[in-house]
Amino acid sequence: GAGVSQSPSNKVTEKGKDVELRCDPISGHTALYWYRQSLGQGLEFLIYFQGNSAPDKSGLPSDRFSAERTGGSVSTLTIQRTQQEDSAVYLCASSFVAGELFFGEGSRLTVL
Amino acid sequence: GNSVTQMEGPVTLSEEAFLTINCTYTATGYPSLFWYVQYPGEGLQLLLKATKADDKGSNKGFEATYRKETTSFHLEKGSVQVSDSAVYFCALSDPRGAGSYQLTFGKGTKLSVIP
């Protein structure tokens, strides 16, 4: 597609369940980012992939969060044993030029 | 560590008014600076950038100048339109090697422009 695609756009889950969020970046973009956007908190960096290098996981808030990027393209963010504080919009972005990120519309996660 | 502080919103202006959104930063190195905009119902998109001191980024009538001496990158527009209503995010890069840039974002400033 022309832009960054994320799915699902909305996810409602029960506390304790696992969720997977998917990101399909722009073709040819070597860098992929996950951010979390909470009301009043701005954008919180989670994880960054660049080519075949080891990912920068320094922003992951706990070991319940993990992400992978297969074949240098599609990425999946997994949250295990979800908690209510995980409720947020999860944003994926891809980039070819350093610092110039193209964002998807996000996946809104609500944990009941 | 790196951080970005921008003025809290919301900001409400009448059409054709002058806009300033303040942004200051803290960084250990020599970051690049960015403004991103999020229109209602859309994803964030790059508005403008500046990569070194005294550079001016501009786009769609918006401007921002990279001021190293005051560690600032204030966003300005001379005459806002209703279509400029959005949330604006200031951001800086954290260069960790060639081609690798994690962005640190401010909390965002919501702008509403009324006719």
**Amount of helix of chain B:** under 10%
Main β sheet profile of chain A: 6 strands, mixed
What general outline of chain A do the C-alpha atoms trace? globular
Based on CA atoms alone, the radius of gyration of chain A comes out at 13 Å
> What's the SSE pattern of chain A?
EEEEEEEEEE
- Our estimate of the beta-strand percent of chain B is over 45%
Q: How far apart, in Å, are the first and last alpha carbons of chain A?
A: 33 Å
Strand content of chain A: over 45%
What is the number of strand segments of chain A? 10
Q: Structural class, judged by helices and strands of chain B? A: mainly beta
Mean pLDDT figure of chain B: 91
Distance between the termini of chain B: 41 Å
**DSSP summary: helix tally of chain A:** 0
What does this structure look like?
The complex is a heterodimer of chains A (112) and B (115). Chain A is built from no helices and ten strands. The N and C termini of chain A lie far apart (33 Å). Chain A is an all-beta fold and 112 residues long. Helices cover 0% and strands 50% of the residues of chain A. Chain A has strands spanning 5-7, 10-13, 19-24, 31-38, 42-50, 65-69, 75-79, 88-95, 101-103, 107-111. Chain B has 115 residues and is an all-beta fold. Chain B has no helices and twelve strands. Chain B has strands at residues 3-6, 11-14, 19-21, 23-26, 33-38, 45-50, 56-59, 62-65, 75-77, 86-95, 101-105, 109-114. In chain B, the strands form three sheets. In chain B, strands 2, 5, 6, 10, 11 and 12 form a six-stranded mixed β-sheet that branches. In chain B, a hairpin with a 5-residue loop joins strand 10 and strand 11 (101-105).
